């Protein structure tokens, strides 16, 4: 179907009207006989017919072509009202820029973005609706951090939610520490194997130098220089191994600290449960939990 001719401002040439729906052409196609149609209109016509609806000449989909350029330019220059005119939009633009305007029009009816809400509102009023939508998500007013998605969720158990979150946090921290530990152990093993191999090569080279027939080992400057380089390599390898061992010990220490923190959080959670049964008031046991959430970010993976 084409554009309603009542939306257009000024005169519209008869040649820019669809020969089937008699509205202004939308996505136009042209037959060899030069009659123009909306794409949807002519495709629907050719399902049941095999000729032009104007002069009855035989046509099919394969002979349809885009509109002549001069006609396409005339069509694009036509001025018309926005489709949201009935809702208050007073915009008048060219047909060529109509789609761009209507995609951004503040008066367009769009659906609410909250799952389960079927209301459609004007784009300019969407923020106001989202603030009061009964399907909007919000945090528990008691401070446990649980996200309330529906009216039923308001009756949730804060202590149970905190325990669940605590267990998830504990599992996540343990996994991170174990990953860091395994990675450092793997790197240490690789470095150790490299050092053993390097040591064996150096020992062989030293023995060869000692057995050299051309003077004693100490008398040759080149041998002294090579020996110095070898000893420097050995010292560097030993220093690297000591550093990796220190990093592994640091990771173990951080793991123990995290486990102590988790045990403290579990104790706080049990105390909060006991106090909550005696004094049903709003609470916010998040201070230590939030600090625990930040703790895994401080674990450096070597």
UniProtKB/TrEMBL annotation:
<dbReference type="GO" id="GO:0043122">
    <property type="term" value="P:regulation of canonical NF-kappaB signal transduction"/>
</dbReference>
<dbReference type="InterPro" id="IPR013083">
    <property type="entry name" value="Znf_RING/FYVE/PHD"/>
</dbReference>
<feature type="zinc finger region" description="TRAF-type">
    <location>
        <begin position="101"/>
        <end position="144"/>
    </location>
</feature>
<keyword id="KW-0175">Coiled coil</keyword>
<keyword id="KW-0479">Metal-binding</keyword>
<keyword id="KW-0863">Zinc-finger</keyword>
<dbReference type="Pfam" id="PF02176">
    <property type="entry name" value="zf-TRAF"/>
</dbReference>
<feature type="coiled-coil region">
    <location>
        <begin position="192"/>
        <end position="268"/>
    </location>
</feature>
<dbReference type="InterPro" id="IPR017907">
    <property type="entry name" value="Znf_RING_CS"/>
</dbReference>
<dbReference type="GO" id="GO:0008270">
    <property type="term" value="F:zinc ion binding"/>
</dbReference>
<keyword id="KW-0862">Zinc</keyword>
<dbReference type="InterPro" id="IPR001293">
    <property type="entry name" value="Znf_TRAF"/>
</dbReference>
<dbReference type="Pfam" id="PF13923">
    <property type="entry name" value="zf-C3HC4_2"/>
</dbReference>
<protein>
    <recommendedName>
        <fullName>E3 ubiquitin-protein ligase NRDP1</fullName>
    </recommendedName>
</protein>
<dbReference type="InterPro" id="IPR001841">
    <property type="entry name" value="Znf_RING"/>
</dbReference>
<feature type="domain" description="RING-type">
    <location>
        <begin position="18"/>
        <end position="56"/>
    </location>
</feature>
<feature type="domain" description="TRAF-type">
    <location>
        <begin position="101"/>
        <end position="144"/>
    </location>
</feature>
